[in-house]
Amino acid sequence: MKMTRRTVMSGAIALAGSVVLPGMSWANATLTVGTGTLDTLSDGHLVLPRSFVLADTVAADADVVLEPFGLADADTFMPDCNLTLWRNGDRVVLFDAGSGPDFMPTAGHLMAAMDALGLTPEDVTDVVFTHGHPDHLWGVLDDFDEPLFANAQHHMGQIEYNYWTDPGLPDTILPERLTFAVGAARRLEVLAETINLFADGAQIIPGVTARATFGHTPGHMSFEVAAGDEVIVVLGDCIANHHFAFARPEWPNGSDQDTTAGVATRTALLAQLADADTVFVGFHLPTPGIGRALRNGETFQYVAMT
Ligand SMILES: [Zn+2]
């Protein structure tokens, strides 16, 4: 695998040195995998309260892990959002659709990133969802509530689709996530007639195989992307940051809807990825989000691919 990366300032003001006004640049990295090309495209970043990520973790314990990352005492986390674009043969596959304009002002920049690659939404042949959270799903419609990727086949795991389209969900989801439920249902209703629903282990596109990684959401899926002898894993959010998730994978992550299942998925998957030295893309790992896991006994370390 060979990686190149670049950062482009689009309408941004470059200040002295390399400082760029936040939210005004996008970046991408390109990885050659067998006969295919994998790009990660920045959709911007989120701004999350510390409590959303840390769950019940004791603050002092958390700060020990966060200190090497310069995040001890941070009130907010600002995880990057990296979409994966996979081009192989005649397929142009986008993993997740980004936030769109309605979630957070710091996210929803995907169109600028695609434009810089010379791509339009009409070029995308497949949109594959890891899960139904806003930063992954809400960018799927245009200003007229029509599918933005007008020529694409959309794909989502059956369990995930059933969860977000359950009419009873707004009554059972945590109140602070009610907008997640309403927003997902509205978008999936538009796609309902044509979306392809699949199960764990399905090869949904030649070389792209679904892998159940439940916990972050009830039907969260990751994907093995293979071309020739090479494989890369598109994680989505089952390993959702570069600090806790690796250094303390057994700690509950407050962003996981089922924290117990999230821990089980994360610990098992990290061991597999580290022991096989598999390259992966993490949606919320630092842009461009491509790297490996290094094992230190029962804990791990994220090693970015540069
Ligand atoms: Zn996410």
Helix content: 10-25%
CATH architecture: 4-Layer Sandwich
Number of strands: 17
CATH topological fold name: Metallo-beta-lactamase, Chain A
Mean pLDDT: 90
Strand content: 25-35%
SSE sequence, one letter per element: EEEEHHEEEHEHEHHHEEEEEHHEEE
Low-confidence stretches: 9-25
Largest beta sheet: what is the strand line-up?
1-2-3-6-7-8-9-10
Bound molecules: zinc ion
CATH superfamily, please? Ribonuclease Z/Hydroxyacylglutathione hydrolase-like
How would a textbook summarize the main sheet?
8 strands, mixed
Radius of gyration equals 18 Å
**Sheet/helix structural class:** alpha+beta
Number of helices: 9
Short summary:
The protein has helices at residues 50-54, 59-66, 110-116, 134-137, 158-164, 169-172, 178-191, 244-247, 259-276; strands spanning 2-9, 25-33, 36-45, 48-49, 76-77, 80-88, 91-95, 126-128, 153-157, 196-198, 203-205, 208-212, 221-227, 230-236, 279-282, 290-296, 299-304. The protein is built from 9 helices and 17 strands.
